[in-house]
Amino acid sequence: MAQAFRFYCRCLRMNLLAGLEYRGWWLMALHIALTTVAEPACLVFLFARFGEIGEWTMERILLIYAMAVTSFGLAKCLCRGFDTFPWRMIRSGAFDRVLLRPRSVYLQVAGAYFDIMHVGRVVAGLLVIGWALARLGVVMTPGRTAMLMLALAGGALVYSGVFVASSGIAFFTVKALDWILIFTNASTFILQCPVEFIPRALHGMFTFLMPMLVISYYPASAICGWGESVALGLLALPVGALFLAASTLVFRFGARHYASTGS
Fold it and tell me: What are residue 190's phi and psi, to 5 degrees?
């Protein structure tokens, strides 16, 4: 296990150093950071014009949104190989070479690409989290800080699971994967809506199928004292691990049916 982890870290380090060779990387990172902050602009304008919606303030929704975005950015950084797998490895035929190497296929794919530009998404998300917590008057005790870190880690595992599952599906189809965006980019827009107003079908989908609310709303509620229990706030990491494990089974199923790009 330790050897596999070192191999994965070396792959990420190699790709990180390669990315730093591009002198304009910081401009792309800044662009993504500014885009992350600007995405909920309509929400900010609405709250500025019409005020609070019951107990829901702009800071509450931005906190939930920022937790999801930060987790998304972590997954983009640490599991980018699976995010780009359908196009970089399946369509190009590079996965054939991966199968020939005496290393874990899973780790080779996961560490195949490190997108340094998405560090900007992580930094912007953390800044918004800090701002929202300060505006809400939440005192971050060690317990609350630990719960926040566990929630972000669990969220990163969930988004990584989406990348892994979509890579497994890519063994059977590449062009029909755009619907995966519902569970990645579009999921952060769902969280810009107060939880009570999310339609029941979407609430169930983003709780049990794609546990977005488990990794964002419940931890935020437990940290800020909105009514949810600490037990629910601590579910993010185990749920994220289970989601990633299930996604790994999808990838392995697809890999067993892989018959080479040239066949």
Answer: -60, -40
d(CA 84, CA 174): 11
Q: Which two tokens stand for residue 244?
A: 């990633």
Bridge partners (DSSP) of residue 56 are 53
Q: Residue type for 154, please?
A: G
Phi-psi region of 141 (alpha: psi -120 to 50; beta: other; left: phi over 0): beta
Q: Are residues 240 and 212 in contact, defined by beta-carbon separation less than 8 angstroms?
A: no
CA atoms within 13 A on the CB side of 115: 21
Q: Examine the pLDDT at 263 and tell me if it is beyond 60.
A: no
Query: Which tokens in the block code for residue 191?
Result: 């969280």
Residue 261 pLDDT grade (very low, low, confident, very high; cuts 50, 70, 90): low
- pTM summary value: 0.88
pLDDT tops 90 at residue 80? no
Smallest Cα–Cα separation from 63: which of 129, 127, 139?
A: 129
